[in-house]
Design a protein that fits this description.
Blueprint (H helix, E strand, L loop, with lengths): L6 H5 L8 E9 L5 E13 L25 E10 L13 H19 L3 H8 L6 E2 L5 E2 L4 H11 L5 H10 L24 E4 L5 E5 L2
Parallel strand pairs: 2-3
Antiparallel strand pairs: 1-2, 4-5, 6-7
Length: 209
């Protein structure tokens, strides 16, 4: 005998993705340089705790600097029990929420002070490596400005205004957005061993014991 839940049954019984409500406060100086980010999150845990539920909102911490130089960052998490099904690790487990939050406040800041979103990013990209963020993530190398420039070229960012006006004449609305993303991967204690396996099957120890 085999039983397979229908979508409606799964919706009211399976663990689900996150349910967070976050407030973010962003400080900038007179030339739109980032100074500090303060985040307060209320995270719904559901009616009872799952295996990773309480840990997921804390994983937001490690990506709150994103690709930007933000000298001071603080995060406060409050976890509450409700009458919903519990949450658990699903598609990113904390990191997408953190990146979304940072990119949202960066975009809002650009609009409020009246500069282009790509310009505010350029002014605040991390460009010196290695770089240790206030949230204890260390970046060994990257080219965030170059990645953004390439994406804008391929999206024909400069030509968007003409496309938007043409769409408006046809009775259609058109929009464009910009967001950066960085992921935190790996982990483990000092005994972790990183191996490189070549096409010939040769194994080389990169780091670790």
């Amino acid at each position: 005998m085999r039983w397979t839940a229908e979508r409606g049954e799964g919706f009211v019984s399976d663990v689900q993705g996150r349910d967070n409500h976050s407030n973010a406060e962003f400080a900038l100086d007179a030339v739109a340089r980032f100074l500090a980010l303060r985040v307060t999150t209320c995270a719904n845990m559901g009616a009872y705790l799952s295996n990773f539920g309480p840990f997921i909102p804390q994983l937001t911490w490690f990506v709150l600097s994103s690709v930007y130089s933000i000298p001071a960052i603080t995060l406060q998490v409050r976890e509450v029990l409700t009458n919903t099904v519990p949450v658990d690790a699903y598609r990113g487990a904390g990191r997408p929420e953190g990146i979304y939050l940072v990119e949202r406040v960066v975009d809002v800041a650009a609009r409020e002070i009246g500069i282009a979103p790509d310009e505010i990013c350029h002014r605040n990209f991390i460009d010196t490596f290695p770089y240790l963020t206030p949230v204890e993530s260390e970046y060994d190398s990257d080219d965030f400005a170059g990645a953004m420039q390439l994406a804008m070229q391929r999206a024909d960012w400069a030509g968007f205004a003409a496309r938007r006006d043409a769409a408006a004449k046809r009775g259609r609305l058109s929009g464009i957005g910009l967001a950066m993303y960085i992921e935190r991967r790996g982990g483990g204690n000092g005994d972790t061993i990183v191996l490189k396996i070549g096409c010939d099957g040769k194994v080389t120890v990169i780091s670790g014991m």
